[in-house]
Design brief:
single chain; 5 helices; 123 residues
């Protein structure tokens, strides 16, 4: 009875045959030439990116300030939404929960300013 040959014992190509079949010209690897239209799009995309980073920083700073200040005001617990849920109102009025919300506000401000400080335009 003959033993079956394992799949891993398939002979490989000789090295000289492998190198001759991979002859790819360098022209295929060169990037395509840029047209005048792509310059216009890159300018628009650059300003859209700048605007989106500015809006992200602005929104995260405003949300962070609100999350720091709002939990310590009376409006936090005396609002229309929590009047019908007294058990949720006790949880929300807890100092630990308010501290967590203020901590998230600090984190939100830190993320926004970190994004602003590490902004760089890609060429």
């Amino acid at each position: 009875m003959t033993e079956p040959t394992p799949v891993s014992s398939v002979p490989a190509k000789p090295p000289e045959a492998a190198s001759s079949s991979v002859a790819t010209p360098a022209v295929l690897l060169a990037p395509p030439p840029e047209a005048g239209l792509s310059q216009t799009h890159s300018g628009i995309q650059l300003w859209m990116h700048r605007t989106s980073v500015f809006l992200f920083v602005l929104i995260s700073a405003v949300a962070g300030v609100l999350l720091i200040i709002l939990p310590w005001t009376p409006e936090w617990t005396d609002n229309y939404l929590l009047l019908s849920f007294p058990s949720l109102r006790t949880v929300v009025s807890n100092g630990f929960f308010r501290g967590i919300c203020s901590g998230l506000g600090l984190l939100d401000i830190w993320i926004g300013f970190w994004e602003a400080l590490h902004y760089h335009e890609q060429q």
